[in-house]
Amino acid sequence: MIRRAASTAITEIVGVGIWRGGADATEAKMRTFKHIVGGAVALLLVLQSTPARADVTSLGEVDIGGPDVIVGFFGSGATTGALVVDGGSELTGREYIIGGGANAVGTPLVDGPNTLVIVDGLDDSSSALQVGHEGHGSLVIQNGGTVTVGDGSTFISSFIANAAGSTGAVTVKGEGSAFNVNGLVSVGNGAVLTNFGIPGTPAIGVLGVFDGGVVIANGLIIGGEENASGQVHIAGTGSTLESSPSLGDSFYQIGASGHGILNITDGGAVAGLNGANIGRNTNSGGLVNVSGTGSVFAFEGIDSDGFAPFLTIGRSGSGTLNVSDGGLLVFDPMGEISGPCCGGGFNVARNPEGVGNVTVRGANSEIRVKGGFGFVSVGRRGTGELTVATGANLVIEDGVGGSIFVAPANRSVGTVRILGEEKDNSGAVIAVIPTEIDAGGTLALGLAFDGVTNAGVATLIVDSGGTATAAAIKIGASGTVFLNGTLNGTVTNGGTINPGFSPGTGTIDGDATFNDGSVLNIEVEGGLSGEFDRLVVTGLAVFDTGSRIRVIASNAVVDQLCTLDVVEAGAVQGTAEVVRVGAGGGVSALFDPAGTVTLVFQGCTGEVFIAQQCPSESFANHDDFVSCVAHAANDAVDQGLLTRKEKAQFVRQAAHNKE
After folding, report:
1. Element (H, E) at 647
2. Which position among 10, 109, 117, 256 has the lowest Cβ density within 10 Å, counted as fewest Cβ atoms?
3. What does pTM read for this prediction?
4. pLDDT at residue number 342
C-alpha cells in the first residue's frame, strides 16, 4: 500500500508480506527472492495453504535478484514493513534486516507450531539477522514458532538494535517457541557517534523470553558499545536462555561498554555459560537480577583451556548482582579442572577501577560453588561488596579446597556482610534468621592470596543469626570484624575484632589467636548484661604479648564499675596490653587460664571486687562460697587491690560468716 500526500508525492510506503501454509513445494522458489517488505521497493507475498503452488502477489516492484529479506527498507523517508510467517510454513534467507533505514519500522511475526524461519548466513555473513539495523525492528516468535540463525558450521551473529539510534526487540513466548542462534546475540549494540564530534542516539535493544520460550546462543552481549543500552528478560517456568558450546566457549557480557540488564525471574533459567562479566569496561554498567523460586543463573562445564566457569561483577566498570526470593546462582564445572589457579566462582571488582556489588537475600536464596577448589574474591583489586541476608546462603562445596578472599590486593577495598536480622522500616529487629557464608577452607580478610602478606582494607560484618564458616579464618592488619553472630572455624586475628553491636556478644566457635599488633575492642556502657561487649570462644583463646584489648568507656562508667568478664573461653593462654580509648587509663585485666578475661576498673577496691566476683546469695554451699572468695582475693592481690594480709582477713571472714 502506498500512501500519498495531497501533492501526490510519496511520503510513506507500507508493505505487508504473509507466508502461510505448507512450504515443501515452495522453499526452493522462495530462496531466490530478495524479499523487501516496506520501503522504496515494497512486496506483498501470499503463499496459499495448498502445498502444490505458491501465488505471489506484488505491490510495486519485486526484486528477485538476491536472497536477502528486508522488513522496513532503507531510505530517507518513513518506511514500514510487516511480515507474518505462520501456519507451519518455512521461510529461508541469507540475511534478514528488520528496520533497515533510520526511519524504517519492521515488525515480523513467526507464529504457530512447525513454522520456521531460517537465516542461513550464506557467504559467511557475520551479522545475518539485524532487528533494528538503523531503524526500529520488532520480531515476535510465538505459539511454537522457530527462528534459526546459522547451521552450526560457522559463527553467525544476530543484532538487536545494531546501530546508534536504532531500537530493536525480540520476543519469544510460549512453549515450543525458539530462537536458535549459532553464534553471538548482541542486544543494544550501537553507540553514540563521537569520532567526528557528531552527536547520536544510543541503540536500545530488548530480548524477552516468556511462558516457556527458549533462546539458544553461543554468546551474549547486552549493552555493547559505550552508551548503548540493552535488556534481557527471562521470565516464567520453562523460559530458558541456553548456551550452545558447538562453536566454542560461551561467554556473556552484561554491560560490555554500555549498559546492560539481565532479569531472570519467576522460574526462568539462564544455563550453560563458561563465564561472564557484569560491567566489563570502564564506564560500563551491568545489572543481573535472579529472583523467585526456581529461577537459576547457571555456569556449567569446563572451557577449552580447562578452566572452571567464572563470573566477574564489576571488571573495570560497575556491576551489580542480586539473588533473591529463592533464586539460585550456581557454578558447576561438571568435569575435571585442568587449567591453572582455581575452581569455579566469582570476582567482585576485578580491576582497580572496577566497582562490584553482590546481594543474596531471602529464605532459600543461594550462591553455590561446586566441584572443589571454589573461589570467591570480594574487592579483587577494586571496591567490592558482598551481602548475604535474612535466610540466604553462600556455600563453597567440598570442604578445605574452597576459599574467599576479601581485599587481597594493595589499595583494594572489600566488604562482606552476613545479616541474619530482619528489620522493619523503623530499623527495629522483627526476626533473626539463620544466614551463612561457608568458604570451605579459607576466609581471608585483607590478606594476599598467599594468606600471609597484608593487603587491602577488608571488613566483615556478622550480625545476629549470621555465621561465617571456614576451616581457617584469617584477619590481616587492615582487616576488621564486627561480630554479633558467629565465626565458625579457627580464627587468627592480625587486625581488629569488635564483638557485639553497641554493645553485644560475638562468638568464635573454635580456637582464636590474637597476634602481635592485633586488637580486641570492648565497648562498655554499664555493668549489666547487654551493657558491655563480650567475646565467647568455645576453644582456646591465645593472646600474644603484643596484642591489645582496647576498652571504650566514659569516665562516668569507669568510676562506677569494678570488674567485667569480657572474654569467656574454653581456656586462656597469654596476656594482652589493656588500653582505654578516650580519657585513657583506669582499666586493667586479669587473664585466667581457666577461661576468662576480666576487666578491672580504677577505683575498684578489694572488698568490692570480691563482692562482685562472689555474691553470697548465689552459693547454696558455704564451702563453695569460701573457695570463691579465696580465689577472688588472690586475683585482687595480683591486681594490687589487696595486700596479702588483707587477703587473709577476707578469707577468714568468709569462713566465719557461715550461718
Report:
1. helix 644-656
2. 10
3. 0.87
4. 64
